C-alpha cells in the first residue's frame, strides 16, 4: 500500500509538471523559449515512475484490506519523508535536462529548496531562464507551502480510512491544530486548499495592479503565499523598485505566517477563536516589536556600531525606513526572504544581524507556510520557564501552562522542550559540517539556520543579494538534508531514519 501511495504522489507531481510544460509550450510559440522538451521528458519520466510504483504496490501480494488495517503512524512518517525526497529528486529533472544547472548537487539543492520553501538558490542568471523553468520554480514552492500531503488529500483520496488520512496529515502538518480539524479530514484539506488558492489569486491580482506583468504576478504570488521567496528576477522584488509592490508583498507575507486553521475557523463562523488565539497575538506583537527595533537601528546604529555600519546602504527618510523595516521583518520571520530595494541586512551592519538571526530561527505561527521553530513552541517554553520560577517562590502551589485558555499538558510541554533541544543539537551539528565543508564560522551559523529554518539567505558569500553557487558540494548536500528536516519539523524525518537504521521494516 505504501508503494502505491508514493506512486500516486509521483503522478500528482507529474500533473503539475504537465501544467508547467503547457506554460513552456505557450512561451515557445510566443518568444521561442527552449525548455519544452526538458519539461515534457521530465513529466514522462515522473509519470512512468509513478505507474511503476503503483503497479508494484498492487502486485505485492497483500490484500488491500489487510494493508489498511496494518497501517501505522510510522508508515505515515515514512511516506511523508520519502514523498518529499522523491519530489525533490524528480523535481530536479527539468533543471538538469534543460541545462539550467550542470550537476546533480546543484539541481537537487534547487529542487529541495523549492519544495521546502527555503528559497535558497544556486542560480546566478535567473533573468535569463525560460518561462517554463521559472514557473516550475514557483510551482514547487506553492506545492511545498501548504504541504504536498494536504494538497494531495484535498484532490485525491488515496487512503480508504479516515484515520490513515489523519496520521499522514498530522505527520506533515504537526502544528496546524489538527485536533479541531480531524473529524472530516477530506473536507478540511479541501477548505485549507480553497483558502490557499483564494489568497494566492488575490495576491496575484494585487501584484498585477502594480508594475508586474501577469506572468511575474502569478509566479510571485505562488512564492509569496508559500513563504518560499523564489523570484523571476535575480534582484527579486527590488527589480521593480516599487513601494506599492513592497507593501503588497509585506501584507501577504504576513498573511502566510498565520495558522491556516484560523482562516478555516473564520469560514466556519468561529471568528471568536481567531481573535482570541494567543499565538496570533504573539505573532502580531513580534512583527510590531521587530519592525520598531529595525527602524530604531537605522537611526541608532551609526552611533553605536561605527566599525561595521555601512550608512550608505541605509534607506533615506522615515517612510522608506518604515517600509524597508516592515518588509525585512515580514520577509525574515515568515522565512520568505524576498529581497526589496535597499534590503541587504549583510551590508547594514553587525547590529542588524542579531534580530535577523532571531527571526530566522523563530519563524511565524504553527500551521502556516513559514519555517523556523514556530511561535507556539516559544510561547509554551517561555510560560514553562516562568512556572519554574513561580514554583521556586511558591513551592506548594500548582501551576499549569495555558495557551488560548487551553491547558497544555506536561507531555506536550516535554515534547516542545525536546523539540528545541533536538533543534539546537542539529543546528550545532550542521554548523560543524559547514565548517568542515570550508565555510567560515559566521557563514556556517547563518547557512545552517537558513536551511534548518527554511529561511533562504545567508551572509557573506551567500548573503541576501547573492546565491549559493559558490558553496561546496558537501555544503550543498548538507543544506539539502537540513532543509528537508526543517520542513518536516524534525520528528518525522528522524523517526523514519531511526527506524531504518535500527532495522525495522516498513
The string of secondary-structure elements, in order, is HHHHHHHHHHHHHHHHHHHEEHHHH
**In which range does the helix fraction lie?**
55-70%
Instruction: Supply the number of helical segments.
Output: 23
User: Rounded to an integer, what's the Rg over CA atoms?
Assistant: 22 Å
- Cα distance spanning the termini: 11 Å
Which regions are unreliable across 5 or more consecutive residues at pLDDT < 50?
A: 174-179
Mean pLDDT: 85
Structural class: mainly alpha
Biggest sheet features: 2 strands, antiparallel
* Number of beta strands: 2
- Strand arrangement across the biggest beta sheet: 1-2
Percentage of residues in DSSP E strands: under 5%
Which outline best applies? globular
Concise synopsis of the structure shown:
The chain has 506 residues and is mainly α. The protein has a domain at 402-501. 67% of the residues lie in helices and 1% in strands.
Amino acid at each position: 500500500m505504501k508503494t502505491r501511495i508514493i506512486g500516486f504522489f509521483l503522478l500528482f507531481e507529474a500533473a503539475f509538471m504537465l501544467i508547467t510544460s503547457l506554460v513552456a509550450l505557450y512561451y515557445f510559440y510566443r518568444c521561442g523559449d527552449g525548455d519544452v522538451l526538458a519539461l515534457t521528458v521530465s513529466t514522462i519520466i515522473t509519470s512512468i515512475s509513478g505507474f511503476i510504483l503503483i503497479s508494484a504496490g498492487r502486485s505485492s501480494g497483500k490484500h488491500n484490506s489487510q494493508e489498511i488495517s496494518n497501517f501505522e503512524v510510522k508508515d505515515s512518517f515514512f511516506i511523508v519523508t520519502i514523498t518529499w525526497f522523491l519530489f525533490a529528486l524528480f523535481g530536479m529533472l527539468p533543471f538538469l535536462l534543460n541545462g539550467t544547472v550542470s550537476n546533480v548537487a546543484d539541481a537537487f539543492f534547487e529542487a529541495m529548496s523549492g519544495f521546502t520553501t527555503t528559497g535558497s538558490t544556486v542560480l546566478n542568471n535567473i533573468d535569463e531562464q525560460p518561462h517554463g523553468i521559472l514557473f516550475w520554480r514557483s510551482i514547487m514552492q506553492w506545492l511545498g507551502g501548504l504541504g504536498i500531503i494536504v494538497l494531495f488529500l484535498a484532490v485525491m483520496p488515496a487512503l480508504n480510512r479516515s484515520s490513515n488520512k489523519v496520521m499522514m496529515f498530522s505527520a506533515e502538518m504537526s502544528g496546524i491544530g489538527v485536533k479541531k480539524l480531524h473529524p472530516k479530514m477530506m473536507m478540511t484539506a479541501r477548505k485549507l486548499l480553497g483558502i490557499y488558492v483564494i489568497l494566492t489569486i488575490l495576491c496575484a491580482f494585487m501584484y498585477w495592479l502594480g508594475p508586474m506583468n501577469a506572468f511575474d504576478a502569478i509566479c510571485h504570488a505562488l512564492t509569496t503565499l508559500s513563504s518560499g521567496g523564489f523570484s523571476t528576477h535575480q534582484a527579486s522584488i527590488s527589480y521593480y523598485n516599487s513601494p506599492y509592490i513592497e507593501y503588497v508583498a509585506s501584507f501577504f507575507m504576513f498573511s502566510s505566517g498565520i495558522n491556516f486553521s484560523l482562516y478555516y475557523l473564520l469560514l466556519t463562523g468561529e471568528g471568536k477563536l481567531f481573535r482570541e488565539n494567543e499565538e496570533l497575538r504573539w505573532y502580531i506583537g513580534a512583527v510590531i516589536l521587530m519592525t520598531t527595533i529595525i527602524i530604531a537601528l537605522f537611526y541608532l546604529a551609526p552611533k553605536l556600531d561605527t566599525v561595521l555600519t555601512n550608512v550608505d546602504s541605509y534607506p533615506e527618510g522615515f517612510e522608506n525606513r518604515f517600509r524597508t523595516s516592515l518588509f525585512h521583518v515580514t520577509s525574515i520571520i515568515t522565512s520568505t526572504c524576498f529581497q526589496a530595494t535597499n534590503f541587504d541586512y549583510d551590508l547594514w551592519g553587525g547590529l542588524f544581524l542579531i534580530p535577523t538571526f532571531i527571526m530566522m530561527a523563530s519563524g511565524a505561527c504553527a500551521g502556516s507556510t513559514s519555517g523556523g521553530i514556530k511561535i507556539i513552541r516559544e510561547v509554551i517554553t517561555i510560560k514553562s520557564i516562568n512556572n519554574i520560577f513561580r514554583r521556586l517562590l511558591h513551592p506548594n502551589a500548582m501551576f499549569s501552562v495555558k495557551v488560548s485558555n487551553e491547558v497544555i499538558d506536561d507531555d506536550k510541554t516535554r515534547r516542545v522542550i525536546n523539540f528545541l533541544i533536538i533543534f539546537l543539537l542539529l543546528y550545532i551539528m550542521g554548523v560543524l559540517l559547514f565548517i568542515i565543508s570550508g565555510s567560515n564560522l559566521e557563514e556556517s551559523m547563518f547557512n545552517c539556520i537558513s536551511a534548518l529554518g527554511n529561511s533562504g539567505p545567508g551572509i557573506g558569500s551567500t548573503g541576501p543579494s547573492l546565491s549559493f553557487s559558490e558553496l561546496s558540494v558537501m555544503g550543498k548536500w548538507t543544506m539539502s538534508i537540513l532543509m528537508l528536516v526543517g520542513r518536516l519539523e524534525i520528528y518525522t524525518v528522524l523517526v523514519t531514519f531511526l527506524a531504518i537504521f535500527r532495522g525495522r521494516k516498513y
